[in-house]
Amino acid sequence: MNLERYSPKNLRRPSYGYINVHPIQRGGILTEEAREVLVEWADGYSICDMCVKGRVDLLKTPSVQEFKYDVAEFLGMDEARFTAGARHAKFVIMNSVAKRGDAIVVDSLAHYTTYLAAELNELKLYEVPNTGHPEYRIEPESYAQTFENVKEKTGGYPALALLTHVDYKYGNVSDVKKVGKICEEYDIPLILNTAYSSGVMPINGKKLGATFIVGSGHKNWAATAPIGVLATIQEYSEIVFRKSKIKGDITGKSFGMKETPLFGCAPVYGLPIITLMASFPGVVERVKRWDREVDKARYIVKELEKISGIHHIGIKPTQHTLNAFETPSFYEVSKSHKKRGYFLYHELKKRGVMGVQPGLTKSIKINTYGLTDDEVEKVIWAFKDVAASYGIDVED
Ligand SMILES: *Cc1c(COP(=O)(O)O)cnc(C)c1O
């Protein structure tokens, strides 16, 4: 065993000091306020010092009890809890609302964690198609069509529907309101996966027709991993946050206060929940500036498309800071480059930009959320400069 490997000097973060445009990294950058509480709350179960009721969401010091309602209000819902991530929240909802063998309908841009949550709950999964290249749009009416298809195949309508508000591949913002309306007409509860939207975009779950909202604290609420949010309406609160009924057969022990799907407490104790709380005021403010982020992203798309052979894919004009591009001109370079597909990653890194997946040159995706104006210019310059250095035309 070489323990030297784990010394602080060997645990330096590779992206430290770089502009990081990796899609999953922008919204999880801590606020100044969250950085301020880091050291004080860094130890193990730090938040449990004053725990009396045995549940983190009932804590008064610090006031998680108030916080869960503030989060619910922020999302336009009635009740909220904290989970180990958006994935855990999805698992819990599916586990609470559907039975083994039931059908769930999900959009075809859904994240792998949606599929795995369905698999672990032994659900049958049916996909809502998208329009394909180049926009990959999910048409709301396709939900109704898919519900009917499920009915034809299985004899009943699905137990649940899920819509990915903003998908991880193209950053498409889907038309939740219309999907919500269709689900309401069919009386099918709707999970809205806001991993790429809540915490950066304004969301009002009830107005959108969502029965459940899942969010990701470490992805888009400026919190330390792992933490997610599960919010719901009154009607479903006692179903998803149901309390334990088990009893020890010898000891007679029971845990009637504990919420079973959350393993008693939310499975998040120290820094994840504290940083989520410390960042919350900043998050409440920043969602109001979302339009400015979209304008910035549109500008970046326009500038990158000046590079010959580079074009944005997904819904146009972009409505999000996560954007995908087809980059055949970089792919051409990679064919004869000694670093092959890795050249783009290395060239960008030399110019101070990280986050484009190493090895990819046919298509790339970047997230520009929260970049300063200087950083925006630096990212654009880096891409254009790499292109120019390999003889790819760049428009003025
Ligand atoms: C990142 C992402 C997730 C996973 O979120 P966790 O909080 O890490 O579980 C789920 N869905 C989508 C659409 C994502 O982009």
Describe the structure.
With 396 residues, the chain is α/β, with parallel strands linked by helices. It has 2 domains: 3-26 and 289-389, Aspartate Aminotransferase, domain 1 (Alpha-Beta Complex), CATH 3.90.1150.10; 28-287, Aspartate Aminotransferase, domain 2 (3-Layer(aba) Sandwich). 36% of the residues lie in helices and 13% in strands. It has helices spanning 32-37, 64-74, 86-97, 112-120, 141-154, 176-186, 205-208, 217-220, 234-240, 271-286, 290-304, 328-336, 343-350, 373-389; strands at 19-20, 79-83, 103-107, 124-128, 160-164, 190-193, 212-216, 228-232, 311-313, 322-326, 353-354, 363-367. It has a 7-stranded mixed β-sheet, sandwiched between helices. Strands 9-10-12 form a 3-stranded antiparallel β-sheet, covered by helices on one side. Strand 5 (160-164), helix 6 (176-186) and strand 6 form a beta-alpha-beta unit. Helix 5 (141-154) runs parallel beside helix 6 (176-186). The longest helix is centred in the C-terminal third of the chain and has 17 residues, at 373-389. The chain is globular and about 75 Å long. The mean pLDDT is 97. Bound molecules: pyridoxal-5'-phosphate.
Q: What integer is the average pLDDT? A: 97
What is the percentage of strand-forming residues? 5-15%
Q: Can you list the ligands bound to this structure?
A: pyridoxal-5'-phosphate
Strand tally: 12
Which residue ranges are poorly predicted, with pLDDT under 50 across at least 5 consecutive positions? Answer: none
Q: Can you tell me the CATH class of the largest domain?
A: Alpha Beta
How are the strands ordered across the major sheet? 2-8-7-6-5-3-4
How many helix segments?
A: 14
Distance between the termini: 56 Å
- The chain-level structural class is alpha/beta
Instruction: Output the radius of gyration.
Output: 23 Å
* SSE series: EHHEHEHEHEHEHEHEHHHEEHHEEH
* Largest β-sheet summary: 7 strands, mixed
Helix content: 25-40%
Q: How many discrete structural domains?
A: 2
CATH architecture of the largest domain: 3-Layer(aba) Sandwich
Name of the CATH homologous superfamily of the largest domain? Type I PLP-dependent aspartate aminotransferase-like (Major domain)
